[in-house]
Amino acid sequence: MEAHTSPDLLTEPDEEVHLGCLHDETAATDPDRTALIDGESGDTVTYGELSDRIAAAGNTLANMGVETGDRVALCVSNQLGFLYVFFGAARLGAVPVPVNIETTREKMVSVARDSDARVIIAGADEKILEDVRAIVDAVDAVATVGVLSADLPIIDDVELVSFNERRAAAATTLEPASVHRDDPAMQPYTSGSTGKPKGVVLTHAGCHWMITSINKLHFLDENERAIVAGPLYHKNAMVGAVKPMLTVGGSVVIMDGFDPTRVIKSINNYGVTYLRGVPAMYKMLVNADDALADHDVSSVQWAVSGSASLPQSLIKSVRDTFGCEMGEAYGLTETGGPVTLSPRWGPRKLGSSGLALPGADVRIIDPDTNEELSPGETGEFVVSCPSNGQYYHRPEKQREAYFRRDGKTFLHTDDLARQDEQGYHYIVGRLDDMLIVGGENVYPAEVEDRIQQHDAVEDVAVVGIPHEIKGEAPVAFVVATDVTEQQLKQHTLETGPAYAHPRQIFLLKELPLASTGKIDRETLEEMAHDRLDGEITRD
User: Fold this and answer.
1) Burial letters for 461-486: b for 16+ Cβ neighbours within 10 Å, e otherwise?
2) At a CB cut-off of 8 Å and minimum separation 6, what does 44 contact?
3) What superfamily in CATH does domain 357-429 come from?
4) Collapsing DSSP states into helix, strand and coil, what is residue 234?
5) 53, 233, 366, 427: which has the fewest C-beta neighbours closer than 10 Å?
6) Is the Cβ–Cβ distance between 100 and 76 less than 8 Å?
7) Could you tell me which of 431, 427, 469 has the C-alpha nearest to residue 448?
């Protein structure tokens, strides 16, 4: 299988790009500097202590039989122990596999089986342990389960290890395993919204390029303090905040989950300067009036949102609430993180996911011909960059997802976008989401933008449904106050082409969200079919 990495990547051992060594420089030069803060207890971990705990975690994994190249599945909620195991595995030369613990048990089993993980590290909460029991029953390859607890549950036919107890007794020095720049560093999985989750192998060089590019474009340094309230198994938290902070010597506040009141309190208590999240999180933060009235959030200097487009009204609300500028990011599991970012300094454009990272070749192509389109034209977003990963155990999917052009290997993202003359990118939806309404292409994101312009609208999502005459038609779900469905429909007719107006609008108290904080469009499609009996027959 062809390796999809930049041609200038070396094949010699290079600790500079080692995923398990991000913290090393600060640990050596300023070991007393704060690296991590437990957002619930307030306990702090210095860089020196972090180095010791990562080394001890790596040695514990080695004592459990983990070797270089082995996959280690992490079924762990947000806690500091997740990071010790993740970076300890990477330092050992093993490959951490972060598992979405909020998904279905069936998908967790699928990830464990597909990843070839012989060792699972599990959190101590009951739900996770029940999921792990199911994994052990279904996946014969799993030989050992390490539990982040002193009290071990009973799981038949598998060796159980009290990971925390063993880590406390393990050596606190661990030389990083010799790795090559293009060796596997980690293996996240796609959400699997349209099938089984797919494993993506990311290299040490790719991870290093991603982290350093973010740091450069956002001018991050040791004075930054980020807060992570989203799940650590997701790239938004790890790539957007944890890894960049540990690389520059900054600090990270780790919350055990997202609660707007507790996040705002932590911003106040710990002087957080850098926010990273998804639109749903920011909406809840700016609406937490009581918490905002009681706490000072003026320490925040920069906020970044990913995973979904930001309404202009929300950007304004974040600016007004925190007194900071806000940017957007776009990336995929396959790219290991964002490939376009709003610059921290310099022009930012509303509705844009920003500029391509230095070293990334981003193009907009005709999805039928693969020919490059001109600025302003909507087509498929494709990218060639050093962080592009390879699908694990999916050679046929690998061949489908990549193509060669101008001596480079490009990834089909299946996302629709346009690029302006200045190189700013605008994501307008998924290729599969594009609707053909009476022969016209209609992009749900553009319909959403028009609805969002109404002052009464707080949130909106548009999906497609079969139409007896037009073939397909947009249907909108809207969170709004003091407005009727008919008034919103009239608004869209007045602000855009008639063929692109939503044929039905349904008012909801809130939009359903997936575990990652994205709008759950699959659920909305089901709701639309149920409410309209599967098809629109008029209008």
Assistant:
1) bbbbbebeebebbbbbbbbbeebeee
2) 34, 36, 37, 38
3) Luciferase; Domain 3 (2.30.38.10)
4) coil
5) 366
6) no
7) 427
CATH placement of domain 18-257: 3.40.50.980
For residue 527, what is the enclosing H or E element?
helix 521-532
Q: What is the pLDDT along the chain (539 residues), one digit of tens a residue?
A: 333 233 333 334 344 689 999 999 999 999 999 999 999 999 999 999 999 999 999 999 999 999 999 999 999 999 999 999 999 999 999 999 999 999 999 999 999 999 999 999 999 888 999 999 999 999 999 989 999 986 777 777 777 889 999 999 999 999 999 999 999 999 999 986 667 899 999 999 999 999 999 998 888 999 999 999 999 998 889 999 999 999 999 999 999 999 999 999 999 999 999 999 888 899 899 999 999 999 999 999 999 998 767 777 788 899 999 999 999 999 999 999 999 999 888 788 888 899 999 999 999 999 888 899 999 999 999 999 999 999 999 999 999 999 999 999 999 999 999 999 999 999 888 887 777 787 777 878 788 888 888 888 888 888 888 877 777 888 899 998 888 988 898 888 888 888 778 888 999 988 888 766 678 888 888 888 888 875 555 55
Distance CA 90, CA 341 (A): 27
Tokens representing 177 are 């395993």
Residue 21 DSSP class: G
Residues of CATH 3.30.300.30 domain(s) within the chain? 434-532
